[in-house]
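Dear colleagues,

For the upcoming journal club I promised to circulate an example of a predicted protein-ligand complex. I picked one with magnesium ion because it came up in last month's discussion. The inputs are reproduced below in full, followed by the predicted structure.
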Amino acid sequence: MPAGGKPPAGYLMEVCVPPIIELKDIYKIYPNGVMANKGVDFSVNAGEIHALVGENGAGKSTLMKIIYGMEKPTEGKVFVEGVERHFNSSRDAIDAGIGMVHQNFMLVPSFTVAENIVLGQEPTKNGLLKKRQAIDETLQISQQYGLRVDPEAIVDTINVGMRQRVEILKALYRGANILILDEPTAVLTPQETQELFSAIRKLVDQGKTVVFITHKLREVKEVSDRVTVMRKGKAIGTLPTEEATRESLARMMVGREVLMRVDKPPSERGRKVMEVQNLSYVDETGRRVLNNVSFNIYAGEILGIAGVEGNGQTELVEILTGLRPATSGDALVNGNPVLNKTPREVRMAKVSHIPEDRLTNGLALEASINENLIVDRYFRSPFRKGTSIDYKTVRDFGAQSIKEYGILTPDGDLPVASLSGGNMQKVIVAREFTSDPELLIAAQPTRGIDVGATEFVREQLVQKRTEGTAVLLVSADLGEVMSLSDRIIAVYEGEITGVFPDAESLGEEELGLYMLGIKKQPAEEMEVLL
Amino acid sequence: MIRKLYMKPFVREFLRILLAITISLGLGFIITLLVSDDPVGAYQAFLTGPLTRINRTGEWIKETITLTLLGLSVALVFKANLFSLGQEGQMLLGALVSGSISLFVPLPAILRIPLALIAAMVVGYLFGALPGYLKAHLNANEIVSTLMLNAIALRLYDYFLIFHIKPEGAGYNASDFFPKEGILPTFIPNVPFLAEAYELFSRRANITIMLYIAIAVVILTWYVMYRTPYGYELRMLGANSKFASYGGINTKKTIVLAFAVSGIVSGLAGAHLGMGIHEKLIANITIGIAFEGIVVALLARNNPIAVPFAALAYGYLRAGADIMERTSDVSREMVLVIQAIIILLVTAERVLPIIQQRVNAARANNNLSMNSEKPALEEGG
Ligand SMILES: Nc1ncnc2c1ncn2[C@@H]1O[C@H](COP(=O)(O)OP(=O)(O)O)[C@@H](O)[C@H]1O
Ligand SMILES: [Mg+2]
């Protein structure tokens, strides 16, 4: 930063009309046919903190990417400071004073903080980076906006909180007047969240405008001036924060959806299969992700976990399946402890697992379909004969699974990568269902797959449960949890906030209040139902 | 029909390698044109040299055997998506123990040779397990640890060679020649009706029974990799380590074993250097070949069956280069250029996606950086 540059004066331009950003009737259809925005009107006033809330997949990120020039709207108009704009890339948006920090950061890990901040418009001399100046400039804007960073640290070595501050500073360095933050608090500890909020307030004091996305209604109340709620691609409404109650926001967010009907014979609850007692988990950063969670799962029932994503469900599933150690507590399957065991030991206790992220955990994409089907059983009879794997048996088993589970492929020896998303999921389902489980843990079993495959997976889940398997269902799709589960527990910030033994008669709005931590059942009441 | 043939991965691989080699040979000739007064003669020496005399052919085959073993050793680690530069250390120790047994253990050949080979494999296994253990349990970077272990092995080798093995008072750093009982026999049995061939080969091109052992190791490696539970674990670890853990595979154990089993084969390669090629222990016995297994494995795409073919081709290049260097005015450096081109061409398919990723990342960053010359703070006023 040249020393002669004027600091941003303390005055605030009193802009009343027009809004600094205005979107009119935005439609966005992705090439894969997903309609992420359906006629959204959205406006942001200069100098405000505007919160954007909505469930996963509501279309928030898409809308923000349209403002930032990363995605083009299929239809609709974008106005910045009253002028219609057609951004061809985020570069155009940056030129118009818009900056965005994405859900996943985009820093160069091997560069220093200062290098990352100045990247693309480095102070140079004869083509060489002026390191000193880059560091000085970084320190200067860091102080100006109260965003603490170490300019000389390598990005790879700094924590998430600081990475985020680097991203924000980077946008500010490029002249952002309007700053969009996509779920900035999702990765932060409570303290870091507080720091971020005070930085946001400081930015606004200095004349910036901030839009931030969150799931957490508490944060909306705490820091924003106005709030817009999105649901299923539509903007449901915008209101001043002081007029919004957490209840009203929850209602707007969750809404009333038409439940799909799943044919489900009544549940015949059998013996207790899994028992989880006082399970707690504190992650590497010291965040308490699960707090004293206790529940049972019985044979022949689907126990659904309802919660906004990021409230500990992912960790719960990983802990119960041996992929993550617990901090304290107990978990038993048929009386055998399964906590802090290896995934193999957990599987041997007759637990199956449909993982949340099938591409990272559930499959080896370059390996064949057949080989993906045997990862939990290649070492035992009938697949193992003597010192080797009997590939004839493997192939026969593959062919049978492909037929039974309707996996669309000409040949089980082809790599899984050659399948569509829905068929990949069927490979996982085939494997996890044919291992004769007594407990089936299904995390996001239908996420991102087509309608036909979704229906198939749901039917299979219900069938397993009717045959007497205990099922734990974790899904971000509330409709799915409500229509499949026999019993539902609501979780919020790693704690169980309510237990509902009769999923059928439960109102979605009612459940929403528990999922968002607004209501909580008294402990004694829950204890009987768990 | 031809199309169908082309669809077979093996055929496709073979054609791909052939094309890569042809292109790089073409480029190599252009370079020769620039540096040699007799480019045709020089290049001919390079291209046909290894076939012109039986002893030259022998050199080529012996080199191919070493390269095959090294290539398998590397492929075993690469297949698990791990990286190892430890073949040098494993070879050195393999050569050291097998050489010591050949020299000093007074057993008949029929016992001494197997003992020496087994000892080399055991040492390779143990020394290989070390970086595996460091990687699996302490998350030590395997490139660094294998290189450091190489340095340690080299010192050990030199120490024993100089202070315990070389004849007292000798002015050179080498052992005596191994006794007959400690040298691998010629690959053609000394029976009456093969007497002529035996004579020819044992005199002029001493290819040993290591030829058969190498072929057996190729088949065995393929079998282990594609037919045993351990090989399955190895390949799943390599395809997606998270999937392997999720499925219940003990990934730590698999990592340790990947390095250790790779060490067995390198140890055997080390025994071949002493007992099959030099017939004594010399200083820097692995020089020039220690890291060539990586090239072979890359050429063969970690497919054990393709490894000997890649080794033949690559060994031919190396042998030809030797001959060209000896018989023409072109230096060995030129062949290094050709080799580099081959490696580039053959591995391009694998390297390209990585480059693509880098470019994308750079683009994403460029998107964030704007072209306006004015830094942020100036606009405040
Ligand atoms: N690049 C993309 N290509 C295709 N579909 C996408 C893409 N990005 C998002 N989507 C889909 O659009 C919908 C809205 O996604 P998104 O805007 O990310 O929601 P949110 O940020 O509210 O969670 C989702 O169904 C998502 O799967
Ligand atoms: Mg999003």
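Two points we might discuss: Chain B has one domain: 54-320. The CA atoms of residues 273 and 381 of chain B lie 75 Å apart.

See you all on Thursday,
B. R.
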